[in-house]
Design brief:
The chain is built from 9 helices and 14 strands. It is an alpha+beta fold. The chain starts with 5 loop residues before the first helix and ends with a strand.
């Protein structure tokens, strides 16, 4: 874990307008020499900040940058009716926001929510241990630890509820009928991945469960011009050609998670079935589901009341699947 030093923070605040700034200008603003500016710039580049040096002109970021801001996120949460008490942990660089929350001491306050966000993750992971690409300052890498007054048996389908909360948040900033959920926890635009989540159950005692929800949402990366070699991905910027303040999105995301989780625990998945069916990417498609021991192909028929994926094979046999890697079936 690391944080920016005051000089680095000031540099990024100045360069955050996306314009080119000379070494002299930056040195005067910080009260340091051009050589010291160069040293700080290179430390930021080593961290993963995409600063470009332009000969005889200065330094520039590829686009506008607004850093994560503790005061702004806190204000947004409180002003928009977030009811739970919370701790907010922000980092410049971290191995994994989920892992950080795992290492926190378990609180006895069942109403407390711990929220961890970072500008960059070095070891971010998704489902099946896959790495999560985490460029500096562009996207949202956010984990939240929820202490729920319920048994683990009540949490079947939580990953689906999380996806619905994420989609509701996205629609507040950029409504689009083209953004769907691929069971159980991927948000897609077309066939490109916009967001993924990872649910980890930490503990249960006396009817209380502790759950970590890790969310990676691609926000401001120019994904169209920076494709990944192993998978298609997209961002809100690619969809809308607009840059977003991640602080506002994080606050809305946490607020929506609180709302969806509370309703889910007090009721059940049936309360969300219509919303799920409306946003189900796989429904009616011929898909392949890869599991540890076998592979199944057939038509996706939605989900059941426990959140299991219903797959109908060609001969009419129905399977209810609790896990698996889903993909659209490729005909030979």
């Amino acid at each position: 874990m690391m944080q920016l030093n005051p000089s680095q923070l000031t540099l990024l605040q100045i360069l955050g307008d996306g314009c080119c700034h000379s070494g002299n200008e930056l040195g005067q603003a910080l009260g340091i020499t051009r050589s010291a500016v160069w040293k700080q710039i290179n430390q930021l580049i080593d961290l993963g900040v995409p600063i470009t040096g332009i000969l005889h002109q200065g330094y520039q970021l590829p686009h506008q940058l607004v850093l994560l801001n503790q005061q702004q996120i806190t204000r947004e949460l409180k002003n928009n009716g977030f009811k739970s008490s919370f701790n907010l942990h922000l980092f410049t660089s971290i191995d994994s926001t989920n892992r950080y929350l795992k290492d926190l001491s378990l609180s006895q306050d069942n109403k407390l929510v711990d929220i961890c966000c970072a500008e960059i993750q070095n070891q971010g992971r998704g489902r099946f241990g896959r790495s999560w690409h985490s460029p500096f300052g562009d996207n949202i890498y956010c984990s939240s630890l929820w202490r729920l007054n319920c048994d683990l048996s009540k949490l079947s389908g939580l990953s689906l509820i999380t996806s619905l909360a994420v989609l509701a948040t996205i629609n507040e900033f950029h409504p689009s009928s083209d953004i769907k959920i691929k069971w159980p926890n991927d948000i897609l635009w077309g066939n490109k991945k916009l967001c993924g989540s990872l649910i980890e159950i930490m503990a249960e005692s006396h009817g209380n469960a502790q759950v970590i929800i890790g969310i990676g949402l691609n926000v401001n990366t120019d994904t169209k011009n920076h494709p990944l070699p192993d998978k298609p991905w997209c961002s809100l910027f690619e969809i809308s050609q607009k840059y977003y303040d991640r602080n506002q999105i994080i606050a809305k995301l946490i607020i929506n998670l609180e709302h969806y989780i509370k309703e889910f625990v007090n009721k059940d998945l049936n309360s969300f079935m219509n919303e799920w069916n409306k946003n189900d990417y796989l429904a009616g498609k011929y898909i392949t589901v890869t599991q540890s021991l076998n592979t199944l192909s057939g038509i996706a028929r939605g989900i059941n009341q426990e959140g299991l994926l219903i797959l109908e094979e060609e001969q009419g046999t129905l399977h209810c699947l609790s896990s698996g890697d889903t993909s659209l079936h490729q005909e030979n």
